[in-house]
Amino acid sequence: xxxxxxxxxxxxxxxxxxxxxxxxPVERYAEYGMQVQERMEETGATxxxxxxxxxxxxxxxxxxxxxxxxxxxxxxxxxxxxxxxELAAHTYQGPELRGKIARTYSYYPVVRQIAEAVxxxxxxxxxxxxxxxxxxxxxxxxxxxxxxxxxxGVLLTERYGSxxxxxxxISNAPLAVTQSEKVxxxxxxxLCTRTCPTGALYAPYKVNPRLCLNPxxxxxxxxAPEIRPKMGNRIHGCDICQEVCPANRGLTPRKPDPRSGxxxxxxxxxxxxxxxxxxxxxxxxxxxxxxxxxxxNAVIALANTGWGRKDVLPxxxxxxxxCGDDLRSYFQWAVDTLSDH
Length: 341
Prior knowledge:
Elements: H1 5-15, E1 20-25, H2 30-43, H3 59-63, E2 75-82, E3 100-101, H4 108-123, E4 129-132, H5 137-143, E5 148-149, E6 155-156, E7 164-171, H6 191-195, H7 213-216, E8 234-236, H8 240-243, H9 292-305, H10 312-320, H11 325-339
Parallel strand pairs: 3-8
Antiparallel strand pairs: 1-2, 2-7, 4-7, 5-6
C-alpha cells in the first residue's frame, strides 16, 4: 500500500528537522480574537505593545481565519522545533559579563526553513501552500493537542517544555486533522505568575504586554527606571517565567541545529541581533557599532550585574561619548547605579 499524503508530509517534515507536527482545521478562531480584545481592554494595551506595526490595523483580524491568507485553505499544518540548545543554555562560567537573549529566537530560522521545505513539497504535488505566522500558532497548537497553554501564555509540551519555535503552513491539501489527547501540564502551579518581576502575568493565562520584558526589551520606547533593575542581564526577550516552569525542569539541551542563529533579513524580532551570539559579552555591546536598543539594554544589564567589577564603570563612561541624549541618560543612570554600590 502506498503511503498517504498525510503520512508523506509528516515524514518529510520530521526528516527536515521538525520536532512537532500537527494538522489543524481551517475554521474561524473567533475565541482567540475575543481573548486578545479582552487583554487590550483590561490592560490598556495597543497593537504596538504586541510588537505589531501601528499601520497594520488588521493583524489580529487576519489571524482569526487562515482563509484571509489563502482563500481556498483546507488545512493548517503546525510545525515546531525544539529550541533549547547548548549555545543558549546560559551556563557560561567565563570571566566576562554575559547577557541573555530569549532562547526560542534563534530557532525561528530553523522552523522557517522547515516550513519552506514543506511548502515546496506541497506545491510540487500541485497544491497551494503558504508558510508563515498568519495564524494564532500557540492557540491552534493547543487546540489539536500538540501542547497546552501555560499560565504564562506560552505553549507547554510534554517532551520539550515551553522551548518550542512554531511556524505554520496553510494549504488546500486534503489533510486529516490531528486528534491528540490534550494534556494539562500547569495544574495548580503558579510559579510563573508569582515570579514575573514586573507583574506582567496579572492573572493565570493573561499577559499584559505593556509590562512584559519580552516586548519591553525590543521596543525603542522609554524604559522606566523602576523597570530597569527587573531586567537582570536580559538584553533581548525574557525567559524568566519559563526558567521557573516545572515543565522545563530536567530538559536536555539539544545539539545546535546548523540553521539556528539570528536572521534579521527574514525575522523582525531579529532586527537588532545581526552578528550577536546567544549569550553575548555585555561590555562589547556598549560600542557604537551596535544598535541603540542593544546598547541601551546592555548598559542596563551591566548596571544590574556589573557591580564590584573595576572595568565596568570606565567602559560605560568611555562609550557614553558616542551616545545621543536619550541613550546617554541610560548610561548615566548605569553610572549612578554602580557608583552607589
